[in-house]
Each structure stands twice: as structure tokens, then as C-alpha cells.
Amino acid sequence: MASSLTKDSAGTSGSEKTFFGHPRGLATLFMTEMWERFSYYGMRALLPLYLIAPNGLHMNPATATAIYSVYLSLVYLLAMPGGWFGDRVWGPRKTVAIAGGVIMLGHLTLALPSEGTFFAGLGLVAIGSGLLKSNISTMVGHLYDGPDDPRRDGGFTIFYMGINVGAFAAPLVIGTVGENVNWHLGFALAALGMGLGIAQFLLGTRHLNERSLVVPKPLSADERASTLRKSMIWLGIAAVFYIGTVVTGVYTLNWLLVPITIAGLVIPVMVLARIKRDKELSQTEQKKMSGYIWFFVAAAIFWMIYDQGGSTLAIFAESSAENSVLGWAFPVSWYQSVNPILIMALAPVFAAFWLALNRRGKEPSTVVKFSSGLVLVGASFFLFLAPLTIAGDGHKAAAMWLVAIYFVQTVGELTLSPVGLSVTTKMAPAKYASQMMGVWFLAVTAGDCTTGLLSIAGVELNGTGVVALQAALAVVAGVAVFMYRGKVKALMGDVR
What we know:
Elements: E1 6-8, E2 17-19, E3 22-23, H1 25-52, H2 61-77, H3 79-88, H4 92-111, H5 115-142, H6 152-180, H7 183-204, H8 221-247, H9 254-277, H10 283-306, H11 312-320, E4 321-322, E5 324-325, E6 328-329, H12 338-359, H13 366-392, E7 397-398, H14 399-427, H15 436-456, H16 464-483, H17 485-492
Parallel strand pairs: 4-7
Antiparallel strand pairs: 1-2, 2-3, 5-6
Helix pairs in contact: 1-2, 1-5, 1-6, 1-7, 2-5, 2-9, 2-15, 3-4, 3-5, 4-5, 4-7, 6-7, 6-12, 9-15, 10-13, 10-14, 10-15, 10-16, 10-17, 12-14, 13-14, 13-16
């Protein structure tokens, strides 16, 4: 399938194939990521609906939102140890291959019609996604001749499109089958998608750079033994604790959810504090980290609201929206295809827009873009108040209200997310250059864990008061970032 997208490289004899002018290995990684995202987003679109469905697990919306939020936070939290495995244990290529197998096994476990295996399946998918996330991006970088290769940015753009192609198709296929035929068959289709991704990855590895086989900083024998020993000790403690709660009859789902959500809030703080306290950092690097904390907190607030598009909004659509257009009804999971199709349509427009403003010397600063993203995601939840009010009067809200909310959130994402990725690499201290992308993902973890804790506490996230409060928080945070933009710019130093 990937080979059909290749063409002869310009200036070659015709024997060397490229992928839209890029190294042939990009096709392999593009297709791997596309199928992995197909499986991930398809399962994610089904997850909250399956949790609340009478023929699913029939949970209340608060519990479903908590599970969904904790699951998302785990995926991003595990991206850091996933990168560590690639750097210290298996190397990127082997880590991605193993990760794909773990993800597929997780989806197959979810496909079993048993409540007892459900959370094991979710855990396996989260672990596999964390292992894959950082390492496959590393391998894309390996295809190019260093950071100055003029094709590099374009290669990552094509790779990013693979993410959105998979994310767009997944709810339409997996969501339709899961909702209209059988939930577990939908999860099985997610496993099939990941299986196709693994197969083409293994077949196409010959096109990847040899550096992807190398373990950059392999553990010494002593480090390996120490790491294994500590891991087994902590695993043993957890096993004894949870077996004890089950045996004594005190175990509830919160015994699992609460520790994860607390860890998802504490770990980001600990990681940032550890970097800030590092005495090896120069004064300039210390100042940049102080400035970066502003972006980190802003991003956590953004993702707290944004990721509710798959939980709070989806659960509202299931019960209170008229999910049809011109009399044509569609599955609720299809709403999850709105964001990726808008990303694919609007991302080139935004890139051209920023470039045009830059040529005129009018491109907004990173701080202004960030504040705009926060205000927009807040505005999306102010917009959410309209369908909530309609539903409160006993009517079904029109589907276009939800589409409009996703549209505003997507514009906010394009304003904040790519900028956040860029500023993370620019402001990273040299000592932590390879770890800072994992730190950026921790902002998603913190945001989702905040949502999870609110749900566990019984907060009705689709209540008008709570929605308005979250919207106001985002807007106030965006205005605060804008008002203090001079201070943040000073801390950023030469970064713009």
C-alpha cells in the first residue's frame, strides 16, 4: 500500500524510490502511524459510549468520564518511560515493533465480551501507545541529515497528516460497527488496524535508517539489574496492596482511578521542579524554564477542556443531541472525525497565514498565539452553554451546535498546539533537550487528570454552571498570559 505512494527521486536513475520526494522510509512510518492512530482513535471514539451504554458497562456519565480521562492521561504519561526504553533498552525500531504488538493485544483483550478483562485491555493499549509515541517520531528524524536538512519540516508535516488520516477514518469505520453492530467487534477492528500497521512496518523496516536499530545510551549491567530490581519491588508492593483491598472487600474502582489521577498531577510538578533545581543549568536556561512554566500551565488548562470533546461532549450528544443532518442520522462516534478533517483542511491555511504575516512583520508572538488558543477553547465551552440550555428545556440540540464547538476548539488547537511543540524544543535546556517533548506531553496528562479528579468527586461536567466556570477559567488564563506577555517574553530570552 505504501509503495503505491512512492515515486522516483528527482535526479536519480529511477531505481531509488522516494515518498513525495522524501526518504522511502517515511512511507513506512507514515503508514505505521496512520494504522496505529486508526486503532487508537477508533477505540477512543467508542470508549465513553460503551461505558455508559445499557448493553455495554452501563456506568454513570461521571464514572465514564473519569475512566476516559485517566486513560488519556496514562497514554501521555507513559510517553516519557516509552522514550526511555527506546534510548536505554531496546532502541527505537524494536520498541515500536513491540509497542505495536502490545497495542494489538490490548484491543483484542477489549474485544473479549468480559468486564473482567476490560481494564487490562485499556492498560495494554495505554502502555503500547506510550512506548510507540516518542520512538516513532524519533525514527522520522533519523531519515534526514540532521536538523538543517531542508526536507525535515516537510517530512514531519507529511507524518502528521498520517495521524489525522487515521484519526478521521477510525470513527467512521470502527465507530459505525461498534455502535450499530457490536461493541466488541468494533474493538476487534481496532486490533485489525494495528495488526496491519505492524505488518507493513516489519515489511518496510529495510527502508529505515540504521540508526533506528541502535540503543543510544544502553544501560550497563549494573543499571539494568538495579532498574529491574526496583521495578519488581514497586510491582510487588502494588500487587500486595490491591490483592489486599480485594480480599478485604474494600476495593472499588476509585482505588485504581484516584492514585493514577493524583500521580498525573504530582509527576509533572516534580519533573518541572527537578529541572528548575538543577544547578548545572545556566542562568539563561533557568530563566527560560521559568518562562516555560507559563506555557505549561496554560497548555494544561487548554487540554483539560479540549479533551472533553471525546467524553463530556460525546456523552451529551448520546443523550441530548439530534444526531442527524437533513434527516440523515449518523452514529455519535462520528463527531470524533470532525476535528481531524478540520485539522487537515485548516493546518495549511494557518501555516500560510502565519507566513504571510511574518513577511509583513506582523506575525503574533508565541505568547499571543498561546493566549489566543486559551481564549478560543474557553469560547468553545461558552458556546456549549447554548445546546445545554436547549436540552435543559426538554428539546434535542441540533448536531451543528456540536460541530461548531469542535470547529472553535480546532482553531484553538492550531493556534496553541504546534506553537507549544515548537517553543518546547526552543526553550529546552541543552541537558534536557531529548526529554522536554515528554515534559510537553505531561501538560496533557495534568489537564486530563484534573478532569478525572473532578469526575471522581462527582462533579457534573456537563452542568451549565461547571461548563461556564471552565470556560471562564480558560478565558481568564488567556487574558492573564496576554497581559503578562512582556514578562514572559523577557524570561524567554532570544526565543520568539
